[in-house]
């Protein structure tokens, strides 16, 4: 309670800043590792990566939380088939939606009355909601909290970094990109953002790297491939792997069934599991 400026603050009827801070610290202290899934540019498959990495970790038996802070475009409920679910209050805060027994989910999408509703908020309101999701949700004991951030380096990822990580060198960010140069330019900005905030970069994932033929399963480099690896090497960041485009990935998201739940033995699913395995054990850089 060192942040209190007077005894009146903690004696008032409303929770004081120091009490809220203590509650936040207590909640986050029960989460072993926090992993932010970020991208410098939209449309690179960041949310599908976050969902499938969370599922891969949960399938390994870890207790996992999935927090969707893409407040203006929450897609996690759709990808998990959880549309229409509403958050409920428990004895000690909001109860996350359970997708699996060991996979809990929170998204602003659970607070909206319909899929067409738009969240028209400025920065302070968004910051407050993200902090509430971390402070007032009964996450319980988690091995991993996967945070799906919106693209860019604005209010939401900044709030998540400052609130979640602190000096926690066991946690960090995963940066998702596509091979095209227009996306790679923004990846460099994301890595610089992380390092300016002294947040460890756990690695770079190159998504949509080649195309999986739906008939033969061969991966064909229709566009580019390898750009993510080049950026990772030039920025001295770990490279976690390449995930090809697979038509089944689009179908899985649209049908509310994660790719890993439907396609467990493909090269794409194996890559997701390999990336998850590296996150289980690799130190942050």
TrEMBL record:
<dbReference type="GO" id="GO:0005829">
    <property type="term" value="C:cytosol"/>
</dbReference>
<comment type="similarity">
    <text>Belongs to the Mrp/NBP35 ATP-binding proteins family.</text>
</comment>
<keyword id="KW-0479">Metal-binding</keyword>
<dbReference type="InterPro" id="IPR033756">
    <property type="entry name" value="YlxH/NBP35"/>
</dbReference>
<dbReference type="GO" id="GO:0005524">
    <property type="term" value="F:ATP binding"/>
</dbReference>
<dbReference type="GO" id="GO:0140663">
    <property type="term" value="F:ATP-dependent FeS chaperone activity"/>
</dbReference>
<dbReference type="InterPro" id="IPR000808">
    <property type="entry name" value="Mrp-like_CS"/>
</dbReference>
<dbReference type="InterPro" id="IPR027417">
    <property type="entry name" value="P-loop_NTPase"/>
</dbReference>
<keyword id="KW-0408">Iron</keyword>
<keyword id="KW-0067">ATP-binding</keyword>
<keyword id="KW-0411">Iron-sulfur</keyword>
<feature type="binding site">
    <location>
        <begin position="40"/>
        <end position="47"/>
    </location>
    <ligand>
        <name>ATP</name>
    </ligand>
</feature>
<dbReference type="InterPro" id="IPR019591">
    <property type="entry name" value="Mrp/NBP35_ATP-bd"/>
</dbReference>
<comment type="function">
    <text>Binds and transfers iron-sulfur (Fe-S) clusters to target apoproteins. Can hydrolyze ATP.</text>
</comment>
<dbReference type="GO" id="GO:0046872">
    <property type="term" value="F:metal ion binding"/>
</dbReference>
<comment type="subunit">
    <text>Homodimer.</text>
</comment>
<dbReference type="GO" id="GO:0016887">
    <property type="term" value="F:ATP hydrolysis activity"/>
</dbReference>
<dbReference type="GO" id="GO:0051536">
    <property type="term" value="F:iron-sulfur cluster binding"/>
</dbReference>
<dbReference type="Pfam" id="PF10609">
    <property type="entry name" value="ParA"/>
</dbReference>
<protein>
    <recommendedName>
        <fullName>Iron-sulfur cluster carrier protein</fullName>
    </recommendedName>
</protein>
<keyword id="KW-0378">Hydrolase</keyword>
<dbReference type="GO" id="GO:0016226">
    <property type="term" value="P:iron-sulfur cluster assembly"/>
</dbReference>
<keyword id="KW-0547">Nucleotide-binding</keyword>
């Amino acid at each position: 309670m060192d942040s209190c400026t007077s005894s009146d603050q903690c004696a008032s009827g409303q929770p004081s800043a120091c009490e809220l801070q203590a509650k936040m610290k207590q909640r986050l202290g029960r989460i072993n590792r926090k992993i932010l899934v970020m991208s410098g540019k939209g449309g690179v498959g960041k949310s599908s990566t976050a969902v499938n990495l969370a599922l891969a970790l949960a399938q390994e038996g870890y207790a996992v939380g999935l927090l969707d802070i893409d407040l203006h475009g929450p897609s996690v409920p759709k990808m998990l088939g959880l549309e229409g679910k509403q958050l409920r209050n428990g004895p000690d805060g909001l109860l996350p939606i359970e997708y699996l027994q060991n996979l809990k989910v929170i998204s602003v999408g659970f607070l909206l009355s319909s899929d067409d509703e738009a969240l028209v908020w400025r920065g302070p309101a968004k910051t407050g909601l993200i902090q509430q999701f971390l402070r007032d949700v009964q996450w319980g004991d988690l091995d991993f909290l996967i945070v799906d951030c919106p693209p860019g380096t604005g209010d939401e990822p900044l709030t998540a970094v400052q609130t979640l990580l602190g000096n926690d060198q066991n946690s960090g960010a995963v940066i998702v990109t596509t091979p095209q140069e227009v996306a790679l330019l923004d990846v460099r900005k994301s890595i610089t953002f992380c390092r300016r905030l002294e947040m460890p970069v756990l690695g770079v994932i190159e998504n949509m790297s080649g195309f999986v033929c739906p008939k033969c399963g061969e991966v064909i480099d229709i566009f580019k491939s390898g750009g993510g690896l080049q950026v990772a090497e030039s920025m001295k960041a770990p490279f976690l792997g390449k995930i090809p485009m697979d038509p089944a990935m689009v179908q899985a998201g649209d049908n509310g069934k994660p790719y890993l739940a439907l396609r467990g033995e493909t090269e794409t699913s194996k890559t997701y599991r390999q990336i998850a395995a590296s996150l289980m054990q690799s130190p942050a850089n």
